[in-house]
Specification:
Layout: H1 2-26, H2 32-45, H3 53-65, H4 70-80, H5 90-97
Helix pairs in contact: 2-4, 4-5
Length: 98
Amino acid sequence: MKNKILRAYLEALKEGICNLKAHIDNMKLYTNNELLSLFERHLAQMATPEEPQRLYAPIKYGLEVGGKRIRPTLLMLSYNLYAEDIERALMPAMAVEI
């Protein structure tokens, strides 16, 4: 009885892995450079308020300085493991960077 249940479980697991592999093979997976470029373009188009200047000037400066952008890139890479519509992850990536 245990062997029969175990075999059924393993068969279902194998089928699930095959389905997942087929899903991943058909997905558009972005590279970190593609995502960074997409993020930078989105950041350049984003309008930031001017007032109150004491609030927004440091945020604007921090975003303009640039850098590796590791946090937003990791967020978008993680999102891309499950979905292709990477544009949905841009605003959360912006929030993480700010």
